[in-house]
């Protein structure tokens, strides 16, 4: 498996921009995909690498309420995917910070890195210190929910409120009998990623079978990372991240969360890592969010559950208006 990416990166500069017209093609850090908000970059050293975290930092659009919400994206999402949530929170008086985690989107994808939720939480904490941000409300979606849980456990004095949108890791897939994929096996799988494969998966999982043309923007964003120069490095980091998600469950520690927690769950979600290779008798039992949401609300000591019975994995994208009404009310109702 070759990981000599420098020649490929040099080639990327020569690619015509119109290549994206037929096949979305961006650089390995989404160089040719623009978010709806300005992007900053925080430079730091980690595990012997010099790297940068891309992030969005938006001030309150209306009367500031003195609070900051930090948004943590999912595995197949980016800081830019939060655009409607950023707008809703900013309009409500919040400062909003949304980073791209290392290994994702517009941030560094190192050649070698030991991924852990502790490391990503530490990186995020360093960014917030750089931005001189103290107390926060933490909102994580999908894999970002696993990271938000780990962050809240590591920095409980900083996190005044925790909110999670269809977090994954509400069950331990390996303990349930889902076969293990090695990073090399994930890598071979990720090399085959295309816009069509992403679309098919998201149609079945993310939006409860209800597809809208505007979702293609996010399909092309993700597919563009895997096309053209730099795609091997993107695929390798993606493989390591999947290994982290599968092998580092947080479900056993929900009972240790002390801060008030808001769970926003689309009950038609059926996301489960490795479901595609799970035994036939196990597949129907995995990713049942109609049950997992309720079980998680019981496991977290001070949790409030809001369910969307007609939505899937990404309710903030599927129905932004209804989702953000529930989010803003839920945050206001949480005691902190």
TrEMBL record:
Residues 68-320 form the AB hydrolase-1 domain. GO terms for molecular function: monoacylglycerol lipase activity. It holds the Pfam family Abhydrolase_1. It comes from the Bacteria. SUPFAM superfamilies: alpha/beta-Hydrolases. The keyword Signal applies. Keywords: Hydrolase, Signal. Residues 1-19 form the signal peptide. PANTHER family: HYDROLASE, PUTATIVE (AFU_ORTHOLOGUE AFUA_2G14860)-RELATED, MONOACYLGLYCEROL LIPASE. This is Alpha/beta hydrolase. It comes from Pseudomonas nicosulfuronedens.
């Amino acid at each position: 498996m070759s990981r000599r990416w420098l020649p490929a990166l040099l080639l990327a500069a020569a690619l015509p921009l119109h290549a994206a017209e037929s096949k979305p093609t961006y650089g390995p850090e989404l160089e040719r995909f623009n978010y709806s908000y300005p992007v900053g970059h925080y430079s730091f050293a980690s595990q012997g690498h010099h790297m940068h975290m891309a992030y969005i930092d938006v001030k309150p659009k209306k009367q500031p309420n003195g609070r900051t919400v930090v948004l943590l994206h999912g595995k197949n999402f980016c800081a830019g995917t939060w655009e409607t949530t950023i707008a809703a929170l900013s309009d409500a008086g919040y400062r909003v910070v949304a980073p791209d985690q290392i290994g994702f989107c517009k941030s560094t994808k190192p050649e070698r890195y030991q991924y852990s939720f502790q490391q990503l939480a530490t990186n995020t904490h360093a960014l917030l210190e750089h931005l001189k941000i103290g107390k926060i409300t933490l909102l994580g979606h999908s894999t970002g929910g696993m990271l938000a849980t780990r962050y809240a456990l590591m920095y409980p004095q900083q996190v005044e409120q925790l909110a999670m949108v269809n977090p994954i890791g509400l069950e331990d897939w390996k303990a349930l009998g889902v076969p293990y994929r090695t990073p090399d096996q994930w890598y071979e799988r990720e090399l085959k990623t295309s816009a069509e494969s992403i679309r098919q998966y998201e149609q079945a999982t993310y939006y409860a079978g209800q597809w809208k043309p505007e979702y293609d923007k996010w399909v092309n964003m993700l597919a563009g990372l895997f096309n053209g120069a730099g795609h091997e490095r993107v695929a390798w980091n993606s493989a390591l991240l999947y290994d982290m998600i599968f092998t580092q469950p947080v479900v056993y520690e929900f009972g240790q969360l002390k801060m008030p927690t808001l769970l926003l769950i689309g009950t038609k979600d059926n996301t489960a890592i490795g479901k595609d290779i799970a035994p036939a008798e196990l597949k129907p039992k995995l990713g049942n969010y109609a049950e997992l949401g309720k079980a998680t609300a019981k496991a977290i000591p001070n949790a409030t559950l809001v369910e969307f019975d007609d939505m899937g994995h990404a309710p903030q994208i599927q129905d932004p208006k209804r989702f953000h009404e529930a989010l803003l009310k839920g945050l206001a109702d949480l005691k902190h």
